[in-house]
Amino acid sequence: MSGPDLIVRARRAVTPAGERAVCVAVTGERITAVEPWSDRVDADEVVDLAEDEVLLPGLVDTHVHVNEPGRTRWEGFETATRAALAGGVTTIVDMPLNSIPPTVDVEALAVKKRAAAGKCHVDIGFWGGAVPGNIDDLLPLHEAGVFGFKCFLLDSGVEEFAPLTPAQLPDYLQRLSTVDALMLVHAEDAAVIAAAPSGADPGYPDFLGSRPRAAEHQAIADVLAAVRRTGARAHVLHLSSSDAVPMLREARQAGLRVTVETCPHYLCFDAETIPAGATTFKCCPPIREAANRDRLWAALAAGDIDCIVSDHSPCTPELKGLDAPDFRTAWGGIASLQVALPAVWTEARARGHELTDVVRWMAEGPARLAGLTGKGGLAPGQDADLVAFAPDQRFIVDPGALHHRNKITPYAGRELSGVVRGCWLRGRRTDGGPPRGRFLTRGTGRTAGSRERGTGRAAGSREQGDR
Fold first, then answer.
1. Which has the closest alpha carbon to 153: 103, 192, 112?
2. Three-class DSSP category at 111
3. pLDDT at 432
4. What's the pLDDT tens digit per position in 348-388?
5. Residue 190, Cβ neighbours under 10 Å: how many?
6. What is the DSSP string of 253-309?
7. pTM, entire model
């Protein structure tokens, strides 16, 4: 019997059993064994990580706005996935907006796949959209392989992706419950925000006041009520208000199938120190106070928040209003895909957390959310998505070094710990060569993705099943 194709030996590796010294054996695209580091196994290629490097599973980011087609000037598949790979992210799931058309029916999904074909440096799946009038498109999209559906409960910021009302949400959840599909919810209440003071000042304090915590609380309460009524599954996107954690905890303890994520910017920044006119920090819901940030970290530690994802939502410099900063009119989105891992690790380590925690939040948790059972871990049977990470190496974020299409980020000039020194995607070292990303589709049991790899032709949604 022939040996493995690849052995990666690491004195430190984050595995499902904790941090260990291991030899990871890879045959084809899969991990076939994880053995003690001291074992000597012959392979076609043997890689020994440096003493200051830790082997991680490739991260999974389930909240990325690629924006192509239609708004490719904001971001695109080639640039977003190259940035992901540089940041140790080997799998992303693309949001149904802000592309034109949005992914709200099967035809639009096909358009997006044609736009992505041949451009993706990482494996990629797609969320569908839930908007007024497309309730009959949900199940066809589900059958076409989307991982679930996203809706807004207030204006999304783009006219082609309208919000559901709280009265419509139960009907959509009921329809999704028939196939046990997941609904992702941007949970801010339109009525609460409409009643909040809009403020006349273009600075951050007035913007923060215009998006109060109560808007998140009311919307989350509506989501929980709809889940209780329908028995469906729901996921609360980009939680910014720590005050909502108790109601989510109680709902989960009562058996409601609700999960929740937060984002690096809510864990790294605070409202008190956002500089005047720094619209690169604008996002919705907003970055809140330092005490709120600390409580979000406590909720992560307690298991009340399931995962950390980037909500990478870039735009052009003009839309960020960099020449005439105004938080009232600037686009609300933060570009962070390439720096999310070191940003979270820097803050996590300062708070006493380990790399095992970061992997749980940024690889295992998002993979579980999307049902990507072949992703997010260093274990036999998993896809051989591997990251060589130097956790102690420090660097200053240089926007010019980012692969994002528009070099705009609130992390510019910030000193972070942790450098990605290399990645393997499904067993092959990535070296800046031609894109090798594969389209992934929702499947039953294991999600392994499509056989068609987007090599210049439109990839379908055929499921591969166990390999």
1. 192
2. helix
3. 76
4. 999 999 999 999 999 999 999 999 999 999 999 999 999 99
5. 17
6. HTT--EEEEE-HHHHH--GGGPPTT-GGG--SSPP--HHHHHHHHHHHHHTSS-EE-
7. 0.94
User: Which pLDDT tens digit goes with each residue over 167-209?
Assistant: 999 999 999 999 999 999 999 999 999 999 987 788 899 999 9
Q: What is the pLDDT of residue 159?
A: 96
Lowest mean pLDDT across 110-124, 191-205, 334-348, 413-427: 191-205
DSSP 399: G
Name the token pair of 124: 């990629």
For CA atoms 446, 58, 423, 85, give the dihedral sign. positive
Only one residue has tokens 């599909």, namely 181
Q: Degrees (nearest 5) of the Cα angle 393, 395, 401?
A: 125
Helices (H) and strands (E) in the chain, counts: 14, 17
Residue 465's Cβ-count burial label (10 Å; 0-12, 13-18, 19+) is exposed
Judged on CB neighbours under 10 Å (0-12, 13-18, 19+), 37 is middle
Residue 444, pLDDT > 80, answer: no
- The first and second tokens of residue 379, run together, are 């274990």
226's tokens:
């709809």
